[in-house]
Amino acid sequence: MVSDELLHQATAAAARFYWHQLRGRPNGWAVRHLRDRGVADEILTGATSWWLGYAPDTWSGLVDHLRREGFDDQTLLSGGLARATRSGYLIDRFRGRIMFLAEDGQQSPVGFIGRAPGGLLKYLNTPNTPIYTKATTLVGVGAQRHRLSEGAMPVLVEGTMDALAIHQLGDHWAGISPCGTAITREQAVILKQASRLDTVVVAFDGNTAGASGAARSLDVLADVFAVVLAADLPGGHDPSSLFAAHPDRLHDALTHARPLAELAMDVELARWERVLDHAAGKVNAVRAVAPLVARLPAGRVAAQIARLSRRVDLEEQIISREVLAAVGLRREQLSTGRGRTRRRDRLDMGSDPPDLSRTP
Q1: What is the rounded CA–CA span in Å between residue 236 and residue 248?
Q2: What distance in Å separates the CA atoms of residue 96 and residue 347, rounded to the nearest whole number?
Q3: How confident is the model at residue 339 (pLDDT cuts 50, 70, 90)?
Q4: DSSP codes joined into one string, 118-156
Q5: Rounded distance between C-alpha atoms, residue 178 and residue 164, angstroms
């Protein structure tokens, strides 16, 4: 049985190896790719707190190095740093990849995410180990611990390159990425503990999938942060591509972020679009969206009621009545500590609205 302490030591040794490999290949594809995506030279040379590495495209570069460092094969296997071939040889798990560091709640390195030039396995994570699981680790929290503690705005993004793009906007922003999974409560708590602020911005990809993913994160984030905002990115862009093309537009999108509940309203209404020409469809759509309106700051509720009225073609009085009911239910749940236990106050993105095409 390999101890957690030894696994941490092996992971840290692997991180040092990957770090030096990137700096030793200034003309390699990894550095060229990172430069093309707008990554600054000071990050590529290791002059900042952001960690970047490179796994060489060899069969056993890391394995050979860690063996020389005194780590045995069982430690490399248990730590997800190597894998055994059918013939019993140990080879590197990560080969020919840009490497990002995954950290746990103590901001200790516990695993990696490797990015390849392309192909089916563009991203490869460390497998589950005694010290690493996707649901309890983040990319960027350790590298930006000082920013976060001094009041930088945490920005939750989908990809590791997106987190790096946010980081480069300046000290007022801290890009954080989950490790290839939807945000979990454990990850949200880790981020909140590292942050001085009680606000988080979600900046997912500027497409339908990104909007839906952001909306699904609302419940988890709202349980941990007092204010949850969403940045609207131009269609077809993620934070990384937008930073490479128009960094000012990325900054503007973050600066003008709106409540995530408003974006979630848009996502939910889009699901009801095909039944909004029926009275029952309109009412049910309003009832589905009302709990989201109830989450908004008081100063934004009236405008959203008016917008919803125009969208579904119902009187504002009807919508206000549903919103007031949702507000009352939410206050009751918060006062009794029951949270979001009733269906009406839960954002459910998994089922489709009923087919009302035959409604008279």
Answers
A1: 17
A2: 41
A3: low
A4: SSTTSEEEPPP-SS--GGG-EESTTTTHHHHHTTPEEEE
A5: 13
Comparing C-alpha atoms, which of 108, 275, 114 is closest to residue 179?
Answer: 114
How far is CA 224 from each of CA 151, 155, 202, 219, rounded to the nearest angstrom? 17, 14, 14, 9
Instruction: Write the DSSP symbol of residue 49.
Output: S
H-assigned helices in the chain: 4-23, 29-36, 41-44, 61-68, 73-78, 145-149, 160-167, 185-194, 208-216, 218-222, 239-245, 247-255, 260-271, 279-294, 298-312, 316-336
Answer whether residue 42 shows pLDDT above 50.
yes
How many Å apart are CA 306 and CA 277, to the nearest integer? 18
Q: Residues 354, 217: contact at Cβ < 8 Å?
A: no
pLDDT, residue 70, reads: 98
- Domains, the chain, in order of start with CATH, read 4-132 (3.90.980.10), 138-256 (3.40.1360.10), 263-345 (no CATH)
Quickly tell me which residue has 């917008």 as its tokens.
307
Residue with tokens 């960690």, as numbered in its chain: 51
pTM of the predicted model as reported, rounded to 2 decimal places: 0.89
From 14, 262, 282, 260, select the one nearest 129 (Cα to Cα).
14
State residue 227 phi and psi, 5-degree precision.
-130, 125
Return the half-sphere exposure (C-beta side, CA atoms, 13 A cut-off) of residue 339: 7
Question: CA–CA separation, 158 vs 176, rounded Å?
Answer: 8
Looking at the DSSP bridge assignments, the partners of residue 202 are 156, 230
pLDDT at position 328: 86
Side chain identity, residue 210: G
Alpha-carbon gap, residue 6 to 110, rounded angstroms: 11
In the block, residue with structure tokens 């019993």: 88
For residues 250 and 254, give the distance between their C-alpha atoms in angstroms, rounded to a whole number.
6
**Identity of the amino acid at 266:** D
